[in-house]
Amino acid sequence: MTAYDVIVIGGGPAGLAAAVSAYGEGAKVLLIEREAKLGGILKQCVHDGFGLIEFKEKLTGPEYAGRFIEQAAATGVETRLLTFVTKIEKIADGFVISLVDRSGVSSVAAKSIVLATGCRERTARQVFIGGTRPAGIFTAGTTQHFVNLRGKMPVKKCVILGSGDIGLIMARRLSLEGATVEGVYEVKSTPSGLTRNIHQCLYDFNIPLHLSTTVTRCFGNDRLTAVEVAAVDEKMRPIKGTERIIECDALILSVGLIPENELAESIDVALDNRTRGPICDQNCMTSVPGVFSAGNALHVHDLVDYVSDCSRIAGKSAARFAKTQSKPERKLTQAAFDKNFLYVVPQTVDLNSDLSAVSVYFRSGYDMKARFVVRVNGKEVFSKRYSVLKPPEMEKVVLNLAEALKDGGKPEFALEDVTKLG
Ligand SMILES: Cc1cc2nc3c(=O)[nH]c(=O)nc-3n(C[C@H](O)[C@H](O)[C@H](O)COP(=O)(O)OP(=O)(O)OC[C@H]3O[C@@H](n4cnc5c(N)ncnc54)[C@H](O)[C@@H]3O)c2cc1C
C-alpha cells in the first residue's frame, strides 16, 4: 500500500490550497478528487467576483480555481481524479483510506488527512412544501450545472425559493439566458445572501424579492405548472388569506448548504451543531488527532478567498503533524461565545501550539451594529467595532493570544449589540 504524509480528500479550492501548502512544508502529498477535473464547485460558477482578497482581482470561478490548479501542478503533489474516498480507518500510526476508481477498490495510507469535501445543497425533501412532486423542482446548484456546464436551459418561467447566494446568482443567470424569473421568495424577514448579490443579481434585473413569504404548494402532474406562495407570520407559519397562485414551469430552491461530513462522522470526528462541520482548533485539527478540516466542509464560507486562506492553515498543520506525530501533546481549551453569534470557528484552542496568529471566523446571529470583544480570564484583550454585521456575511479577525493565554485560561468571545446599548 502506498503511504503518504498527507492525503487531502476533495479537489476544490480548499483541497487545492491545503495540498499546496502541505507540500510547501516538505510533505509527500496525495490529492483525491471524485470528479474528472479539479476545481470543485467553482467549475460551474462562471460569474465573476472571486479572488478580490486573494489576488486583488475580479476573477470567474474557473479562473480562480485555475490559479490554484497551476500552483498544484508546479509542485510534486500527486493527484488522483475520478477517485471516490469511501472509507477512512484509524491505524496505529495514521490512517488507511479506501478508494474506488475505474480499476476497482484500493487503499492508501497517510499520517494525517485533510477533509476538504465541500458542502451540498438542501433539497426539496428537506423543506416542507405541500402538493404534488412533478418534474421541474431543482436546487439552484443543479440548475447552474445544467446551464453553465451542459448548456441546457431547464426553465422558461420560474419561482425561486430562498434568497441564498446561489439562488440570487441563478436569478440573474436565468434572466440573462431569456427565462422569466417571477420573483425570489424568502421565509425569513431578512435576505440570506450577500447584500452585493441582492443588488447586482435582483434589483439590477428588476426581479422582486419577497421577504417573509414562502412557497406552500406545488401543482402539476408530469411537469410543474404552478406554485402557491403565502406570507408568513413571525413564527414562519403561512398566513391564511394571503395565498397567491403563480404559473411557472420550475421551482428553484436556494434554501441552504450543509457541510459534507459523512467521512468525518465515520471516524468519530465531533461536529458542531451550529456549523454542521467539525469542531476544530486554530490549526483546523478536528477532535481526532491527525484529521484536519478545510473549506466548506468545515463551515460554509461566503467567499472562496477565505476558503483558500483557512485551507492553507489546515494543509500546513497536517504536514507538521505528519512530521512530528503531534508532539507536544495537544492541550485543548474550549472557547466560549455569547448568544449574539450564529457561530465562531475555531471552537477550541490548543494551548501547546502557536497562538500568535489565530484566525477567527464568525457570523452574527442577526443584523446588528456591534463591538466584537475577546476576553481572557475576564480581561479584555481585543475589540473591534462593526458598523454593520449581517448573518450572511462572514467576518475574519486574526488574534495574537500568545501573551493572554500563556498561563492558561480560555478565550471568551462577545458581540455587544451597540444599537441596543445605545
Ligand atoms: C453557486 C455558487 C456561487 C458562488 N459564488 C461565489 C462568489 O461569487 N464569490 C466567492 O468568493 N465565492 C462564491 N462561492 C463560494 C465558493 O465557491 C465556495 O466557498 C468554494 O468553492 C468552497 O470550496 P471547497 O473546496 O470547500 O468545496 P467544493 O468547491 O465543493 O469542493 C469539494 C470537492 O470535494 C470533492 N469530494 C467530496 N467528497 C469526496 C469524496 N468522498 N471523495 C473524493 N472527492 C470528494 C467534490 O467532488 C468537490 O470537487 C459560490 C459558491 C456557489 C455554490
Would you give an account of this structure?
This protein is an alpha/beta fold and 422 residues long. The protein folds into three domains: 1-120 and 257-327, FAD/NAD(P)-binding domain (3-Layer(bba) Sandwich), CATH 3.50.50; 123-255, FAD/NAD(P)-binding domain (3-Layer(bba) Sandwich), CATH 3.50.50; 329-422, no CATH class. It has eight helices and 29 strands. The protein has helices at 13-24, 61-73, 140-150, 165-176, 195-202, 262-266, 304-324, 418-421, and strands at residues 3-9, 29-32, 48-50, 59-60, 78-80, 84-91, 94-101, 104-115, 119-121, 130-131, 137-139, 157-161, 180-185, 209-210, 213-219, 226-231, 244-247, 250-253, 257-259, 291-293, 332-334, 336-337, 341-345, 348-350, 358-364, 368-376, 379-389, 395-399, 411-417. Strands 1, 2, 5, 6, 7, 8 and 20 form a seven-stranded mixed β-sheet that branches. Strands 11-18-12-13-14 form a five-stranded parallel β-sheet. Helix 5 links the parallel strand 13 (180-185) and strand 14 (209-210). The longest helix has 21 residues, at 304-324. Residues 9-15, 32-35, 40-42, 45, 49-50, 84-85, 116-118, 141, 144, 165-166, 169, 260, 295-297, 301, 303-305, 307 line the site of flavin-adenine dinucleotide. Flavin-adenine dinucleotide is lined by residues 9-15, 32-35, 40-42, 45, 49-50, 84-85, 116-118, 141, 144, 165-166, 169, 260, 295-297, 301, 303-305, 307.
For CATH, the homologous superfamily of the largest domain is named as: FAD/NAD(P)-binding domain
Cofactors, ions, other ligands: flavin-adenine dinucleotide
Quick one: CATH class of the largest domain?
Alpha Beta
How many angstroms separate the termini?
64 Å
